[in-house]
Amino acid sequence: MDKLAHADLMKLEDYARERDAFRRRIMAHKRARRIAVGPHLTLIFEDRLTIQYQVQEMLRVERIFEPDLIDEELETYNPLIPDGANWKATAMIEYPDEAERRQKLRVLKGLEHEIWVRVGDGRRVPAIADEDLERENEEKTSAVHFLRFELAPDAVAAAKAGAPIEIGVDHPHYTHAARLSDDSRAALVSDLD
């Protein structure tokens, strides 16, 4: 999947005009890419369009229009775009109550390293978590993690051939798995070369 460049981004004034329609398009696009794994873990599988939205929003919020600062945003976000033989996801540990969330983030320390995907009857592919920076400390994990799943050629071929895709987590305090719907499976397969 091609990385984003300046030419792919709208100028701030153009984005201001197009933002509502673009946001609706992105929210509809993300529906198939949002996977609940149990009641408190959600993975959003990123692609070029979801990352374009993230960059546009950062440029808008920070009022960035200088080319060198736009380059910095692209350098930050382009690594989150899948490379054709992998999937990249934002993982969110979600507990609405703040006190419960703080307690659970301590109990769920290491959860980001226990997330996996499996295509068909193949082996589980473990997540490579937080390559950009460590999001866990001695006491707790973070509520947000960035994951990469590197797929072997046979897993890519199986996914393209229609094999089911399962995502799970095996943590001592949180063990769940989810089989992707047809729409979600199609969205993830579209990320593969």
Describe this entry's structure for a reader:
This protein has six helices and nine strands; from the N terminus they run αββααβαββββαββα. The chain has helices at residues 12-31, 48-62, 67-77, 98-107, 153-160, 182-189, and strands at 34-36, 41-45, 86-93, 115-119, 125-126, 128-129, 144-150, 165-171, 174-179. The strands form two sheets. It has a five-stranded antiparallel beta sheet with strand order 1-2-3-7-6, with no helix packed on it. α1 (12-31) packs antiparallel against α2 (48-62) and α2 (48-62) crosses α3. The longest helix is centred in the first third of the chain and has 20 residues, at 12-31. The protein starts with 11 loop residues before the first helix and ends with a helix.
In short:
It is built from six helices and nine strands; from the N terminus they run αββααβαββββαββα. It is an alpha+beta fold. Helix 1 (12-31) runs antiparallel to helix 2 (48-62) and helix 2 crosses helix 3 (67-77).
Query: How large is the count of helical segments?
Result: 6
Shape: globular
**Succession of helices and strands:** HEEHHEHEEEEHEEH
What is the structural class? alpha+beta
Quantity of strands, as a count: 9
Could you estimate the helical fraction of the residues in percent?
Answer: 25-40%
β-sheet strand percentage = 15-25%
Terminus-to-terminus distance: 8 Å
Rg for CA atoms: 17 Å
Multimerization state: single chain
Q: What's the average pLDDT?
A: 95
Largest β-sheet summary? 5 strands, antiparallel
Spell out the blueprint of helices and strands:
Blueprint: H1 12-31, E1 34-36, E2 41-45, H2 48-62, H3 67-77, E3 86-93, H4 98-107, E4 115-119, E5 125-126, E6 128-129, E7 144-150, H5 153-160, E8 165-171, E9 174-179, H6 182-189
Helix pairs in contact: 1-2, 2-3
